[in-house]
Amino acid sequence: MKHFYSNGKLLITGEYVVLDGAKALALPTTFGQSLTIESIPESKLIWKSLDEKGLVWFENIFGLDLKTLLQASNPSQQHGNQDISKRLVQILHAVHKLNPDILNSDKGFKITTQLDFPRHWGLGTSSTLINNVAQWTNTDAFTLLKTTFGGSGYDIACAQTNHPILYALHKGKPHIKEVAFNPTFQSQLYFIYLDKKQNSRDGIAHYKEQKGSLTSEISEINDITSKIIACKTLKTFGTLISAHETIIAKVTKQNPVKSLLFPDFNGSIKSLGAWGGDFILAASEENPIPYFKERGFHTVLPYSDMIL
């Protein structure tokens, strides 16, 4: 039996424009996903996915065949979902192309995945799966991501490290640098779940439709990212994330989340990742938990509970 684990992720700066070469500050989270694999004598793949409570949210059995490689034997069984089954088949087909030997056997596998965060949180259900599968199959996780879900790859970088990173794409290839981001004011930073799952692929598609020339914006975002990493005070940090919001709002032709939902908040707020859902970051001198709970947002995590 083998066991693999990958960290979840949050993109603090550079959302969207990281796809076009901007430098982004990304943080691995205390939450992630595990994958346990056991060899079995039958030529099949028994897949079970558990949520953070240990409850089955997906399961299926796939037949292993050298001609068809993988075919879901029952994609609509009780806990199954046809779209998820198709996505797993896509991932495993991609794995087979990268490492033809891994599924080319008379033996099969029993695979169990388990999240330690609610999968609607958007912390990397897909990226942690990709990285775990890549570890198991001795394939490159960035290549596997590119041929399946797509994206910049910062989430894969977070899955593989326990440190804050500066992430950028140079000519399509990831460049990763560990950075010393450990703000002295982290006790005044909070992550709030907006109770709305945002599809990253939809967010990226919208961004690509709206963006124009980004030379100046990328330069500004790079400067803000550098200043945030070196930031020493909460006041400066708040000013920087507000400036970041203004730039991304202009690029994507969207309104910042603070003006949309929290105009009276006494502090600064920044969207994380694709705008419109998942988590936001709030910086406040006062404890903001009562403020957000009064407005119906009950998942509010202090920085130390979320970030490794």
Would you spell out the secondary-structure blueprint of this structure?
Elements: E1 2-11, E2 24-40, E3 44-50, E4 56-65, E5 69-72, H1 82-98, E6 108-115, H2 125-137, H3 141-146, H4 154-159, E7 165-170, E8 173-178, E9 189-193, H5 200-210, H6 215-230, H7 234-252, H8 257-261, E10 268-271, E11 279-283, H9 289-294, E12 300-302, H10 303-306
Parallel strand pairs: 3-6
Antiparallel strand pairs: 1-2, 2-6, 2-7, 3-4, 4-5, 7-8, 9-11, 9-12, 10-11
Helix pairs in contact: 6-7
Strand content bin:
25-35%
Number of strands: 12
Series of H and E elements = EEEEEHEHHHEEEHHHHEEHEH
Characterize the overall form.
globular
Q: What is the averaged pLDDT score?
A: 91
The name CATH uses for the topology of the largest domain is Ribosomal Protein S5, domain 2
Written overview of the protein:
It is a single chain. The chain is an alpha+beta fold. It folds into two domains: 2-177, Ribosomal Protein S5, domain 2 (2-Layer Sandwich); 182-306, 2-Layer Sandwich (Alpha-Beta Plaits). It is 33% helix and 28% strand. The protein has helices at residues 82-98, 125-137, 141-146, 154-159, 200-210, 215-230, 234-252, 257-261, 289-294, 303-306; strands at residues 2-11, 24-40, 44-50, 56-65, 69-72, 108-115, 165-170, 173-178, 189-193, 268-271, 279-283, 300-302. Strands 1, 2, 3, 4, 5, 6, 7 and 8 form an eight-stranded mixed sheet that branches. Strands 10-11-9-12 form a four-stranded antiparallel sheet. β10 and β11 form a beta hairpin. α6 (215-230) runs antiparallel to α7 (234-252). InterPro entries: GHMP_GYDIA-like, Ribosomal_Su5_D2-typ_SF, Ribsml_uS5_D2-typ_fold_subgr.
